[in-house]
Design brief:
Blueprint (H helix, E strand, L loop, with lengths): L6 E3 L8 E4 L7 E4 L5 E2 L3 E3 L1 H13 L6
Antiparallel strand pairs: 1-5, 2-3, 3-4
The protein binds zinc ion.
Length: 65
């Protein structure tokens, strides 16, 4: 929030439905509601880039879930 046009998205599925997972020695972790990704890394992308990640995820091979 704040940067117009820039989204914080999941690196796995490109979803923007992220929230902080609380607790742990590592500090803050992101949790993706869409693919259940949990990790410290997210991608700052514009809508076009987020969509590209999403399409790649949806069109890719399903190996784990
Ligand atoms: Zn995700």
């Amino acid at each position: 929030m704040g940067h117009a046009g820039i989204l914080t998205v999941c690196p796995v599925c490109g979803g923007s439905d992220l929230y902080y997972e609380v607790g742990g020695y590592t500090g803050k972790l992101y949790h993706c509601k869409e693919c259940q990704y949990i990790g410290p890394l997210v991608v700052e992308a514009d809508e076009q880039m987020a969509r590209a990640i999403r399409e790649e995820h949806e069109g890719g091979t399903a190996t784990d879930g």
